[in-house]
């Protein structure tokens, strides 16, 4: 059994291609998603189909693999079954690899999720894209200068790779749109990146972090470090005693592991990740392996494997090999993470790369970033499509996916709060039960 069709799960499934085993992969979506490029869908640079492939298509040549569309809601390690869709189906296993990843963490403030969406799924990316493009439409409609400024102000919370890449892309997408509007100048777009720590990109060397900050500032992004967000409101963000008026806020500040980890009955870390043994199995259950963002894997220098695609891919391979070793009665091998390098793009011709023995910045790092992401995309069609879209954007300075969807339905069953249309569930999460009743039509 493999739960999750992301980088770790799909890699593990393919590792079993020539093995004498039956593989069942369960995922709540029918597609594999290339998450590192989600922010480009969110900023109307790529189409959703450019970074997705059906899982069944990815395993179509693997005759020993079966795919089931369903949500694994529990793993009963004592009965050796995976519970799917809250008990609708129970699937027995001899060995299971769990790779269900992570979602956003709002540090105990669930109401913020409604106002500041993150980027983990294609639905998230389309939501961010809609909010980004609608902000300009609303700015075009208003005659109030202060309201117009608020609509053209975008706040990105979190200075990790996702936050930096998203913040760097927003002004580059906004400025060429100036010919599309008659009453606003999209070059007046303000992007604010808020990082609670002392510097952005804390996983990179300090020199590269400083270089990325300078690149962002050249693009017009306001980078604020040691800026801890104390509240997210429908029409702004509070940072300590300061309030920044903004109608659009995006979240890139934290992750929380999948809730499936809690059903295993083993120790978890502060982010909800499973603390796995050196061979990626869980304590007391050598037939259960956890990989990817759901696993806390310690390294020799007391650090952990980062939450990145290359870590999940390497863990998926080792977990699959260890399943086969266990079934054959051989010793399992310990996982050793090989860092192939960390990259982050900041904008056109701007990127940083850390390969340990050498650090690269500027155009060369940007070219390396492009090549590596094309290489790791699943499917020849996707590689060609992304390459064509990037070439078009590079030579024309235009993005071709500026589509707003579900505009006419955004008011149904909602209450307008600070320019946002909020559903009853969203209002409940924000601690506004009275308004929730109004939205539900019962108050």
Instruction: Catalogue the unreliable spans.
Output: none
Shape field: globular
Oligomer: single chain
Radius of gyration, Cα only, in angstroms?
23 Å
Q: Portion of residues in helices? A: 25-40%
Q: Give the overall pLDDT as a whole number.
A: 89
Count of individual beta strands: 27
Strand content: 15-25%
| CATH superfamily label of the domain at 112-251 | FAD/NAD(P)-binding domain
Strand order of the largest sheet: 5-2-1-9-21-20
- List the total number of helices: 13
What is the level-2 CATH architecture name of the domain at 112-251? 3-Layer(bba) Sandwich
Largest sheet: 6 strands, mixed
> What do we call the CATH topology of the domain at 112-251?
FAD/NAD(P)-binding domain
Distance between the termini: 48 Å
Q: What structural class results from the helix and strand content?
A: alpha/beta
CATH class of the domain at 112-251: Alpha Beta
Description:
The protein has 443 residues and is an alpha/beta fold. 32% of the residues lie in helices and 23% in strands. It has helices at 7-15, 38-42, 55-58, 112-115, 122-141, 145-151, 161-174, 206-218, 309-328, 362-376, 380-396, 424-429, 433-439; strands at residues 2-3, 23-27, 31-33, 52-54, 65-69, 72-76, 81-84, 89-92, 96-98, 102-104, 153-157, 190-194, 221-224, 229-233, 236-239, 242-245, 248-251, 255-257, 274-275, 281-282, 285-290, 295-296, 342-347, 350-354, 359-361, 415-417, 420-422. The strands form nine sheets. A six-stranded mixed sheet has the order 5-2-1-9-21-20, covered by helices on one side. Helix 1 (7-15) packs parallel to helix 9 (309-328) and helix 5 (122-141) runs antiparallel to helix 6. The radius of gyration is 23 Å and the shape is globular. The termini are far apart.
């Amino acid at each position: 059994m493999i739960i999750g069709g992301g980088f770790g799960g799909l890699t593990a499934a393919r590792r079993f291609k020539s093995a004498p085993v039956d593989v069942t992969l369960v995922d709540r979506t029918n597609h594999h998603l290339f998450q590192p490029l989600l922010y480009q869908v969110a900023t109307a640079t790529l189409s959703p189909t450019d970074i997705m492939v059906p899982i069944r298509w990815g395993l179509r040549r693997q005759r020993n693999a079966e795919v089931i569309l369903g949500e694994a809601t529990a793993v009963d390690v004592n009965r050796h079954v995976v519970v799917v869709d809250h008990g609708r189906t129970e699937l027995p296993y001899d060995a299971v690899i769990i790779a269900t990843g992570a979602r956003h963490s709002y540090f105990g403030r669930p109401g913020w999720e409604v106002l500041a969406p993150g980027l983990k799924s294609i639905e998230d990316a389309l939501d961010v894209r809609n909010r980004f493009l609608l902000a300009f439409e609303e700015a075009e409609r208003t005659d109030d200068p202060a309201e117009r400024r608020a609509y053209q102000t975008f706040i990105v919370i979190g200075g990790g790779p996702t936050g930096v890449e998203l913040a760097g892309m927003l002004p580059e997408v906004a400025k060429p749109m100036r010919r599309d509007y008659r009453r606003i100048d999209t070059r007046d777009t303000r992007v604010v990146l808020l990082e609670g720590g002392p510097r952005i990109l804390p996983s990179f060397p300090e020199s590269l972090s400083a270089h990325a900050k300078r690149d962002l500032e050249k693009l017009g992004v306001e980078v604020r470090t040691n800026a801890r967000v104390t509240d997210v409101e429908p029409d702004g963000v509070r940072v300590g005693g300061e309030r920044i008026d903004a109608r659009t806020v995006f979240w890139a500040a934290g992750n929380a592991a999948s809730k499936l980890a809690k059903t295993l009955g083993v120790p978890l870390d502060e982010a909800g990740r499973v603390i796995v043994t050196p061979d990626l199995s869980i304590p007391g259950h050598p037939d259960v392996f956890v990989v990817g963002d759901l696993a806390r894997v310690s390294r020799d220098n007391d650090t952990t494997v980062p939450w990145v695609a290359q870590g999940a891919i390497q863990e998926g391979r080792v977990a699959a090999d260890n399943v086969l070793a266990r079934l054959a009665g051989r010793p399992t091998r310990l996982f050793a993470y090989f860092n192939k390098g960390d990259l982050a793009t900041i904008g056109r011709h701007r990127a940083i790369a850390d390969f340990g023995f050498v650090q690269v910045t500027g155009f060369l790092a940007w070219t390396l970033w492009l090549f590596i992401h094309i290489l790791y995309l699943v499917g020849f069609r996707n590689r060609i499509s992304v390459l064509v879209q990037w070439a078009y954007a590079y030579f024309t300075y235009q993005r071709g996916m500026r589509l707003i969807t579900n505009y006419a339905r955004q008011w149904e069953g909602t209450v307008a709060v600070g320019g946002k249309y909020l559903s009853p569930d969203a209002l409940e999460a924000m601690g506004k039960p009275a308004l929730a009743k109004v939205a539900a039509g019962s108050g």
